[in-house]
Design goal:
Number of strands: 14
Shape: globular
Radius of gyration: 24 Å
CATH class of the largest domain: Alpha Beta
Largest sheet: 6 strands, mixed
Strand content: 15-25%
Number of helices: 9
CATH architecture of the largest domain: 3-Layer(aba) Sandwich
Length: 333
């Protein structure tokens, strides 16, 4: 298989990098504005991400086959006027569009929160798709759940894919019948600093009795407590006590990384609070891996068929004894 060159925009700690690498990908450019996340990226992949994507000269971005981006969702200041780029100026999606316009990578995979599908009465997603289509891409989108791709975390995200070759036949990856049990995620020797205070512990125990052990207890904004044999979605800005293992302790940074599908070899080089933030902002690696595999496979097959359709002119044997091709009959295959 041809080596797939990809770029990793709004890279965070490299969830897309982890996923694309397993599909034969080689990262040729990364961009991340958060210095702590960049530090973790550099420690794990040997690549120092460029900073603010709005300050990057597109000419410095190498040619690539696949553009990956878990871009922030910003409201569009002007929307619905069908003015193309003029409608998305001032948004970070515009930076992606500028790169696509100039570099024309044959494949794109974008990720965002599931609320993007309904944001502003669906006009935001509509404008994104219209912009990609105007740039020449055949697109599709779907909301996927990390729970369906092997992770014990209910994390729903919208995935948007696109191909320059409109003959590409893409299928979304099939769901897995089972997810990894929490027992394979949770650490056994946990520092006391991760345990909740007696007040929080007693409050949770008084509110809820769990049917799951191990289980992750979740308290919503209304104060209701529930528990599951998996985690609710990790959130970068959530309360430290938002999720509790068995109602008694917080998830460790390593456990949070595991819940996002990062391998144990992933180096933790930042503080606990920064790593929790990074894990909460990351993409679920197995889910993204499954999508990228289907994207690359579909692209590879479409390119194979494209070459097959190209006509080759060869001499038709037996119709001429002359060696000069100008005098021979021609057959097209």
């Amino acid at each position: 298989m041809k080596e797939i060159k990809f770029i990793d925009l709004f890279a965070g700690i490299g969830g897309f990098h982890q996923a694309a690498k397993t599909s034969g990908g080689k990262c040729v450019f990364a961009s991340e504005i958060d210095l702590e996340a960049s530090k973790a990226y550099k420690a794990n992949y040997g690549i120092k991400p460029h900073g603010d994507i709005t300050r990057v000269d597109i000419n410095e971005i190498p040619e690539h086959d696949l553009l990956c981006a878990g871009f922030p969702c910003q409201p569009f200041s002007i929307i619905g006027n069908k003015n193309g780029f003029d409608d998305i100026r001032g948004t970070l999606f515009f930076e992606i569009a500028k790169i696509l316009k100039q570099k024309k990578p044959p494949m794109i995979v974008l990720e965002n929160v599931k609320q993007l599908a309904t944001h502003d009465n669906k006009r935001t997603l509509t404008k994104i798709i219209e912009t990609l289509n105007d740039l020449g891409y055949k697109t599709d989108w779907k909301i996927l759940n990390a729970l369906d791709y092997g992770l014990p975390q209910k994390r729903e995200r919208i995935l948007i894919i696109g191909f320059l070759n409109h003959d590409t036949e893409f299928s979304w990856p099939k769901k897995k019948p089972k997810y990894k049990p929490l027992s394979e995620i949770l650490e056994h020797d946990v520092d006391d600093k991760h345990y909740a205070s007696d007040r929080i512990y007693n409050k949770r125990q008084a509110k809820h009795t769990s049917d799951h052990s191990p289980g992750i207890w979740h308290e919503n904004k209304s104060g209701n407590v529930s528990s599951y044999p998996y985690s609710c979605a990790l959130r970068a800005g959530a309360s430290y006590n938002y999720l509790l293992v068995n109602g008694e302790r917080r998830l460790t940074p390593r456990e949070m990384l595991r819940l996002q599908g990062f391998p144990n070899r992933f180096k933790i080089v930042c503080s606990d609070s920064q790593t929790r933030k990074q894990a909460g902002n990351a993409v679920p690696v197995p889910m993204i891996k499954a999508v990228i595999k289907e994207v690359v496979d579909a692209y590879t097959e479409a390119e194979r068929q494209k070459k097959q359709k190209e006509y080759r002119v060869i001499p038709h044997r037996g119709l001429s004894s002359e060696s000069n091709l100008r005098d021979q009959s021609l057959a097209y295959i």
